[in-house]
Write a structure and sequence with these properties.
By secondary structure, this protein is of the alpha/beta class. Helices cover about 35% and strands about 25% of the residues. The protein has one domain: Rossmann fold (3-Layer(aba) Sandwich), CATH 3.40.50.720. The chain is globular, with a radius of gyration of 11 Å. The two termini are about 15 Å apart. It comes from Clostridium perfringens.
Amino acid sequence: MKIAIIGANEYQAKLILKCRENNIETHVFAWEDGAVGKQYCDFFYDISITEKEKILKKCIEIGVDAVLS
């Protein structure tokens, strides 16, 4: 399973870690500055959470199963 997570602050970091515990591949979208969750995710994309079209395009390319925040 592949999950896209919008944002990488301390709250999303908890979600990323929970996904990791359950062997769920994480694709995280956020600015790199302050992205606490970057160190825990499988794939990180330095794309602002406000750039919906860029995130959507990448999610389609990846073939994610769900999008969370």
